Amino acid sequence: MASQSFRPGLTPLEDRTVASVTPEQLAGAIAQTNAAQEHLEQLIEKQVQNFNVFMVADLKTSLRTVTTDSLESARVLAEYENDVNVLAQSNNSLGGLVGRIADLRYTAGVNAVYAVRLTAAVGGVPITGVFDPIPAGDPIPPTPPPVVVPPPAPPVDVTTNAGTTGKLPDITAPTFTDLGTGVKIQDVSVGQGTAAVAGQDVNVFYTGFLKDGTVFDGNRDKGATKFNLNGVVQGFKQGIIGMKPGGVRNIFIPSALGYGAAGSPPSIPPNSDLVFEVKLLSATDPAPAASTP
Hints:
Layout lengths: L9 H6 L7 H24 L6 H36 L6 H27 L55 E2 L5 E6 L11 E10 L4 E4 L6 E4 L5 H7 L7 E6 L20 E11 L9
Antiparallel strand pairs: 1-2, 2-6, 3-4, 3-5, 3-7, 6-7
Helix pairs in contact: 2-3, 2-4, 3-4
């Protein structure tokens, strides 16, 4: 978009404002035209195919506003230009002002045209009947290609153990994050929906390992298990909180937040660090306790 920027101080123009256009109208038309030009130049430089879905949704509406505002600015500037033209016939000093106003009016019209083109390019409904002031021989950027909106993400699986491996994760991997308590987590897949919070009932597939790879517990090949987070060791509770349904997470639990010095004979020796692979199927608030009659 060839730059036609016109950024004069407003005072000289306002001093010469003629009766049919108020200083406020003129100042508003100048400000809108310059702002719209900068905005549209940035959009054209970015190119439509690089817009994200949220930006596209906003542009379908906002570009129509740019179109109508630019058309109004072009109208005000054209009216001012005509009136100054009349005055210039008896005052040669106004010739330069006429030229600058004409440039600015042209830019406002170009802004409206580009807003229409971009509205169509992002899949919006452009305003029709906009006069194209760009001469046929002038080089202009091509109309951007239609936006390609990525397909929606497939729904996550919240019924099977898909995504789990049943194998000991590498707890030295840099993708593990320390929660600040010694518990470390690694999200293999994040899942969708509302994250689990303390005190909820969770339904999970899991495999529990000792650090040497020995499996001490698990239900991956048996069926999901539902339990309340208040009824598990602290490390497991901390590791589950924040997971979303369908997500798969690896959790490292230091002995102090697992079964500690006592262990859990016969499968978990004393002072054993633990590693879990977990897939969360659901997280719900527990049912209220039945009242006693």
